[in-house]
Fold this sequence. Notes:
With 169 residues, this protein is an alpha+beta fold. Helix content is 46%, strand content 20%. Strand 3 (29-37) and strand 4 (44-48) form a beta hairpin. The radius of gyration is 17 Å and the shape is globular. The protein starts with 6 loop residues before the first strand and ends in an 11-residue tail after the last helix.
Amino acid sequence: xxNIGDIISYPMHGAGVIEAVETCEVQGEEREYYVxxxxxxxxxxxxxxxxxxxxxxxxxxxxxxAREVVAVLREKPDRAVGSWNKRFHAxxxxxxxxxxxxxxxxxxxxxxxxxxxxxxxxxRRVLDLARQILVSELVYALNITCEEAEEQxxxxxxxxxxxxxxPKA
Length: 169
């Protein structure tokens, strides 16, 4: 059971603080919900307590892992292949896994693609979501403000591109 004040990450939304546990009636049935407050804007997400284990909630990343995520932003982007629609769905699937390095790679690829030629409106929504997820997690992992997280992301994206390291066999 999670507690008020716990900082967690919720896939496809980002990191936030459990602000409350509320009981709400939905379709005639009362259920308890965690109320997750995200640092960007004043967005609140309600997660059913009895479904929390199934939705991919996880602890936020460590400061060391946050630096690794920022390093992903400095890598060379993946080459965009296929139609925007195929890329859109592939990027969404990649982000749904909840791995922040994948989210960073999606954000990097789309941000750099957008600078060369504008991305579609669907890809823009994915880019905005990926950016929101990155910022929210960096805020908590590095104990910084949203503005400082945005600056780190922008700085990493404008840095000289590092070559991708190939995994050792």
